[in-house]
Design goal:
- With about 220 residues, this protein is α/β, with parallel strands linked by helices.
- The strands form 2 sheets. The protein has a 5-stranded parallel beta sheet, sandwiched between helices. A 3-stranded antiparallel beta sheet has the order 3-4-5.
- The protein has helices spanning about 20-30, 35-50, 55-60, 95-105, 105-125, 135, 150-165, 170-185, 210-224; strands at about 5-10, 30-35, 70-75, 75-80, 85, 125-130, 145-150, 200-205.
- The protein contains 9 helices and 8 strands.
- Helix 7 (about 150-165) packs across helix 8 (about 170-185).
- The chain is globular and about 45 Å long.
- It binds 2'-deoxycytidine-5'-monophosphate.
- The site of 2'-deoxycytidine-5'-monophosphate has 15 residues, from helix 2, helix 4 and helix 8.
């Protein structure tokens, strides 16, 4: 009998450190790390580039046949491709964050991306992060973590990250964007951001990066 594969779902709001913590924890545990937000970002990037009306779910949905987002693992590191082009860097721009949040509220977009996410988890030991992994994508995941921190702390972390990349912005702008995205992500009709009933709540407000990674690794190991 092949060994049973392990899925760990990490959900939470913007800037909770999901990606960096999950990536590090995956490395330590020998799992594949999957950042599902990158798929929504790739769809958002396409819609942004092609001039979609981002307030029109019908316009966004009508473009889906032209969009082929793909997760490719290169030496265990995730790259995101859009119609064959590596867009791993471009999808991180603040305007694409807003576009990703808009497209993620469109039910047809969520349906189109669902199988892709489940297939990766069906073939690998994964730590998958997103908003609806524990609730919708992998409801049977052995480990579910809801990772969060106070909004100001998350905004400061995101602001520092953007500054380090040379993106011109202000803390106030980052905090306002973060609050808007959290509100929209938690209030959409389909697969809203919420803690799964069986998820462990991990608040990293008072923790540094290393402590947060240790906490997540400990929760995962305890559940295995
Ligand atoms: O995690 P992120 O910031 O890269 O995600 C970008 C957007 O995609 C976010 O605003 C919400 C959406 N998203 C989602 O709806 N479901 C997921 N599983 C992952 C991301």
């Amino acid at each position: 009998m092949p060994e049973k594969l392990i899925s760990a779902a990490i959900d939470g709001p913007v800037g909770a450190g999901k990606s960096s913590i999950a990536r590090t924890a995956a490395k330590r545990l020998g799992f594949i790390y999957v950042d599902t937000g990158a798929l929504y970002r790739a769809v958002g990037l396409y819609c942004h580039r092609s001039g979609a009306d981002m307030s029109s779910p019908a316009d966004i949905a009508s473009r889906l046949p032209e969009i082929k987002p793909e997760i490719r693992l290169c030496d265990g590191v995730q790259h995101i491709y859009l119609n064959g082009e590596d867009v791993s860097e471009e999808i991180r721009l603040p305007e694409i964050s807003m576009a990703a949040s808009a497209v993620s509220a469109v039910p047809e977009v969520r349906t189109a991306l669902l199988d892709m996410q489940r297939k990766i988890a069906a073939e690998n030991n994964v730590i998958m992060d997103g908003r609806d992994i524990g609730t919708v994508v992998l409801p049977d995941a052995q480990v579910k973590i809801f990772l969060t921190a106070a909004p100001e702390i998350r905004a400061k972390r995101r602001y520092d990250e953007l500054c380090a990349k040379g993106v011109q912005t202000t803390f106030e702008e980052v905090l306002a964007d973060l609050n808007k995205r959290d509100y929209d992500d938690s209030h959409r009709a389909v697969a809203p951001l919420k803690q799964a009933e069986d998820a462990v709540l991990a608040d990293t407000s008072g923790l540094d990066f290393e402590q947060s990674c240790e906490l997540v690794c400990r929760i995962i190991k305890e559940k295995l």
